[in-house]
Amino acid sequence: MFRLYRIPIWWYTAPHIVNSFIEANDLGGKEIYLFATSGSSDIGRAVSELQAEYPDLDIKGGKLVNGPITKDIVK
Fold it and tell me: Which pTM does this prediction carry?
């Protein structure tokens, strides 16, 4: 089973509320895919930072969504 989590991107990083959410919930044993909307920031740095900060979680990656959502959202 996997989960998709929408995170905001602020200056290429996830805001502290995302850390609070991760720390308040048991996400162990789950595949985690992040997605975000942003006008200019990329999601890559935010994903890398979260993977480094939470090495025990299975954060697979993320996708930036800036338009209509299509079927490829989890690819």
Answer: 0.74
Is residue 26 within 8 Å of 55, Cβ to Cβ? no
3-state secondary structure of 62: strand
Would you list the domain boundaries of the chain? 2-74
Hey, what are 66's tokens? 């800036």
Report domain 2-74's class: alpha beta
Q: b or e along 4-24 (b: 16 or more beta carbons within 10 Å of the residue's beta carbon)? A: ebebebeeebbeeebeeebee
The string of pLDDT tens digits covering residues 9-55 is 767 788 888 889 899 999 999 999 888 877 677 788 889 999 999 99
